[in-house]
Amino acid sequence: MEITFLGTSSGVPTRSRNVSSIALRLPQRAEVWLFDCGEGTQHQLLRSDIKTSQLRRIFITHLHGDHIFGLMGLLASCGLAGSGQDVDIYGPSGLAEYLRACAKYSYTHLGDRVRVHTIAPGRVHEEEDFTVSCGLLKHRVPAYGYRIEEKDRPGRFDVERATALGIPPGPIYGKLKKGETVTLDDGRRISGADLCGETEIGRKIAYCTDTIFCDGAIELAENADVLIHEATFAHQDSQLAFESLHSTSTMAAQVALAARVKLLLMTHFSPRYFPGNSLDVSNLLEEARAIFPNTKLAYDFLTHEVPRNREMSEVEKSSIAPPLPKTVVRPRKN
User: Fold this and answer.
1) How many helices (H) and strands (E) does the chain have?
2) C-alpha 188: how far from its chain's center?
3) Binding residues for Zn(2+)
4) CA-to-CA distance for 262 and 232, rounded, in angstroms?
């Protein structure tokens, strides 16, 4: 699983940062999922090594322009390119009407290959290997965060041991690889778990933007391998965050700490913190790391590979400190 940031600015693009969009690449199945699609996203895709022909699903957080103005152009270009790939789009109420209006007045025919799904809190998509759920955040308009979960799977199947046990190859191997228990013709019951290595724990990613600090973000990010969270403002500009219902760097770090995530990737930075100003994004990073040390700044075209997990042994589990309480010090309006 690879995360590629296609836009990391808030509100408007800058020379070095485009507006919101993130691509999740699933290399094992040659498929790409997009989260938000701000203006210029298709240009960012062309500048990256991501193939638009592999675009299969698009998840929209909310209907502000810096998150959707690139959607119609991308869909139209894909159609003109003749890729023929089905695209499922998930987003809040009003997204389908927006796309229909765009198609009507631009005389664009999307056809049946584009399907729009109106989301509500809970599971929005499930397949053999993944589930995607969403939850309400706290913003000026209805906004949702997403949680992507890879399902656990058994470890490497020991073919040599299976052969030594006299288990005939074929469909039985497939069941054993899934961890199932099978009964052989001679009456022996064989557990697939005994023939597989350590369980590969599914990876978890949370994507939370736009929002001010809220419990919904903590719930979505619970024990995630990666939390992608907006950090529009520096802590000293918290008043602006409260007025616009965006997050500061310290709010993003508080969510990461409360949710016990492994890594925080901050994005959606206000142009006011770009080089040459009194504060820049390095100051936001310093603020966040004071609360949650394993924090990194996202930038356009940053690609982060989410490593595979494995089930911990009892010895490893016993060496881990107990989880922190969920309660955190909430920011207050001055």
Assistant:
1) 11, 16
2) 44
3) 62, 64, 66-67, 139, 210, 268
4) 21
SS3 label, residue 224? coil
Q: In what order do the strands lie in the sheet with 55-59?
A: 114-118, 87-91, 55-59, 31-35, 21-26, 2-7, 303-305
Q: pLDDT tens digit string along 175-219?
A: 888 778 989 888 899 888 888 888 889 999 999 999 999 999 999
- Give 150's pLDDT tier (boundaries 50, 70, 90): very high
Question: Is 186 designated active site?
Answer: no
Tell me, what amino acid is at 134? C
Q: Count CA atoms within 13 Å of residue 27 on its CB side.
A: 8
> What CA–CA distance (Å, rounded) separates 197 from 50?
33
**CA separation for the pair 207, 230 (Å, rounded):** 9
- Work out whether strand 263-267 and strand 295-297 pair parallel, antiparallel, or are unpaired: parallel
Rounded distance, CA 211 to CA 77, Å?
31
Q: How far apart are the first and last CA of the chain?
A: 42
Active site residue: 36, 49, 66, 237, which one? 66
Q: Would you report the helix, strand and coil content of the chain in percent, each value rounded to 5?
A: 30, 25, 45
Look at residues 96, 98, 100, 53 and name the one whose alpha carbon lies nearest to residue 78. Answer: 53
Q: What is the pLDDT of residues 253-282, one digit of tens each?
A: 999 999 999 999 999 999 999 888 889 999
Encoding tokens for residue 152?
């656990």
Q: Which helix (H) or strand (E) holds 229?
A: strand 226-230
Residue 275: what residue type?
Answer: P
Interstrand relation of 130-136 and 122-126 (parallel, antiparallel or unpaired): antiparallel
DSSP H helices in the chain: 41-47, 65-68, 71-80, 95-105, 159-164, 171-177, 215-221, 238-244, 249-259, 281-289, 314-318
Residue with tokens 């296609």: 6
Quote the CA–CA distance of 16 and 334 in Å, as a whole number: 33
